[in-house]
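Inputs:
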Amino acid sequence: MLDITARPPEASQEAPVAFTGDGGAFLRMMFKGALLQLVTLGFYRFWFLTNIRRRLWSDTAIDGDAFEYAGRGKELLIGFLFALAILAPFYILYFLAGLEAERLKAFASFPLFLVFYLFGQFAMFRARRYRLTRTIWRGIRFWMTGSGVKYALRSFGWAILATLTLGLLYPWREASLERYKMRNTYYGDLQGRFVGTGWGLFKKGAWIWLVDILVILVPWILFAVKLANAGAAHSDDDPVSGTAFADVKGWIILGSISPVVAVLLWPVYQAIEWKWWLDGLRIGEVRVSSRLSRSTIFGLYLGLFGVLIVLGICAALFIGLPMAMFGGASDGPPIGLLVYFAFVYIAALLVVGAFFRYFLQFRLWAAVMRSLTVYDLAAAANVQARGEAANALGEGLADGLDVAGF
Amino acid sequence: MDEGDGVYFDGKTSRRHAARLRLGAALEIREGKDILAAWPWDSIRRADGGQGVLRLSSRAAAELARLDVPDAGFAAELWARCPSIDGEGAVSSGNVGKIVFWSLAAALSIAGIAIYGVPAIAERLTALIPRSVEAKLGEAVATRIDLVFGKKACGTPDGLAALATLSRELGQQGGLPDDVTVKVVKTDVPNAFAIPGDHVYILSALIDKANDPDELGGVLAHEFGHVAHRDGLREMISSGGTAFFFGLLLGDVSGSGVLLLASRTLISARHSREAEAGADAFAAKTLLGLGRSPAPLGVFLLRMTGEQSGGPIALLASHPLTQDRLAELKRQDAPATGAPLLDDAQWKALKGICGGA
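Outputs:
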């Protein structure tokens, strides 16, 4: 006899994540948006951002059903105006406080930047809440509880610890902040949590930290040792002379190149952190796992780098040729040429911005989404709607403070 | 084709309903025999669906109730029956024309505030801010300037005495308060400037290049003019206010920030041209009062900056030496009737204020 109450097979039920975005269309959208931003002196950014999110959200589907971004450009504009009303007196207070501090000691106003840091973290938390409550899947919205102030303080405390340990505690900071964000995150009545640990990230990423520290420090340490030896050997003459001087140049070049090597590891680290973060996400019993590979992320940065080089060559041609033609003129460049340079400069900025968004938003999003498998989606099959749409004040603050993500 | 398939979410739970849709008097959404919902045609709006899927919402249903219609042919049929599918509440990319229009209107108003409003406010505020507050402001700026120039402040005893004599003569004649401080700093750039709170800085190269006490005295009198007119404070309020407006309102704008910076420079240059002319007039009056001619000031300035044509660059210079200014100083030339500003020994001491060479 068939037992219909029997549990399903042990293997968890899997659901695919699909991303159907069209890269060419996205790039065209970026150029159009950049032009409109220029024409509107930047005011178009509220609608531009909204359209980018709408596109990415609706191109992403879990188990065949696409996400929806229900935010509006107008909401961001209003949020920004409210943020202005809050920030304007704050900036003035900050200026006056800075003035008093300056009088006591020049540059003593520096610690006041900490206030801005806290404000920025608060804004980021609130902006996340806005984005989440505008994210809809199967007719139910995501939403968030928790306090932006508590989050900002938590972030600040961990930032101090991470700085004091030269970044060694950074993984624990990330884990702690993510736990706070995720346990305050809900899909309907399904609560989220984060199960990734600081140790888990540390184990995977520590070698990068170590390599970076070594690569940056070792040339300088060796150089200092060598210099000290040279000084001891010819204590009577200048330690930085003759053959020793040739060494100095070599070491300085090496010491300057080594941070570049360190930067090369950034995409690798990003891939590690993304995968760690994704694997740690839970909404109720629903979980995801990611197959995101390091070479994928590295490829994105390589692509961006290649495009930047090509753009750099183009810019050099556009600037260099007219310079060569008019360089001989004695009474300075004509005003038409200055206008042309300004135009080339702005055009270059817009094109670079478009490609940044293409590689580091669209392509990254696509890579992350396509790497995912969702498990135990059945746990979200009958979720009750909860939560209200939050206002866009956080987004506005983040915009005003220049800490906006995307 | 009055019937088709869809996927329905009622906006109250995440349950996925494989629905049968019927295009009747309203849009009827059924699952098996149950009627899940009936959406009036004029309540239906478009929402963002996935690739190749028409997603709909209804003003008559829960806010997040959604209906996905995957079949393009059926979706077109359904679409045709909705009279206000793009009406209020529908998803839209924003009316680009409207956004551009209002942005330009806002930009125009901001520009108006920056060009006319902020200087006017600065003018009023300058008059309202008490000297004691200005002194505090000046102290903050001075601490920072001292930090930048570090230990390069000059001051041989003889040199300082000569400088004090020159300052006292000019200051008393010009009716300046007694607590104006004049500092000499050692650098290769020939310049002098006044900051809020009655502080004047003279860079040593300017002293090196001055031929006689009248030239240097003229420059000092000019800077005293800025002090008397409180130009430093006005400039600080004005440029600070402009930066504040542009920075806050425009946020992180790629590219156009450069244009704004350029326009700001133009605005403040225009402003400082008026201030320069005012300081020149003050200097001329002071010098004539002491029986000395203002013409050497013009000669000295010309020697320091070179003759500038009326091209675009001169328009941008923050310390513009225009032909008008030169002509004005030359016009007021008069034979010297008073005693020299400094005697030979004092002048020599002042030239050596940075310690010989």
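Remarks. Residues 256-289 of chain B form the longest helix (34 residues). The CA atoms of residues 133 and 245 of chain B lie 23 Å apart.
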